[in-house]
Amino acid sequence: MSRDGRFQSFLRHEIEQFLAHKRSLRRRYDAEEKTLALFDAYLSKNNIRGLAEITPALVDEFLLSRPRSRPRSYNHLRCTVGRLFSYLVDHEKLAQTPLRSPPRRGRYQRTPFIFDTDAATRLLALAKALPNHGGTIERGNTYFVLFAVLYGLGLRVGEACRLCLKDVDLERRLLVIRETKFYKSRLVPFGPKLGALLGQHLHQRQTTALAVPRPRVAWKDDKTLLNWLNSL
Questions:
Q1: Pick from 119, 51, 118: which is nearest to 91 by CA?
Q2: Which end of the chain has the least Cβ crowding within 10 Å, N or C?
Q3: Where are the domains of the chain?
Q4: pTM beyond 0.70, yes or no
């Protein structure tokens, strides 16, 4: 089901069923839901009332109406709509997919950057020196701990940002990573040095919560954290 009733076109029920099917397979499909909302809005705007009106030309016009400078972004848009059409074909609501345009070939491959010890040390020092901003509390220490967890345990950025206080088990030296890729959860062990750092941070958080009833966190989401990581 859509999470906020965002689908309004004649195809809304089929889109909701498609999303429910994918999520039953333990796939998150949050970005894909937003993409399908764009397609749904396009159908409504152009007064498309039936599947017979979804032609290859219409699909191409929709893809062109959403400019994508990077092949990867365009291919995600194209493939998401294509998977919906394949679902409709499998359920005999379409005879064949109206998606005809080929994917775009990538012009470059993103080169991963591997931090050595010196680079990681400099990054952590810069993070710790960040001043409080906009009412945030312990901003530098918060980013310092986050980057230390990312570097020391190899977590995804989204996984680190979604960590809660209850996910830190200092006694067993474990982090509980909840509902990550494919909605799976896992336990990640950490060593005594990172355990001491996390214990100190938890103590600071508890002290701050007593002194400030509703302290602001230093970041809003994983994109904010990535932006600061790139800027540092």
A1: 51
A2: N
A3: 12-90, 117-231
A4: no
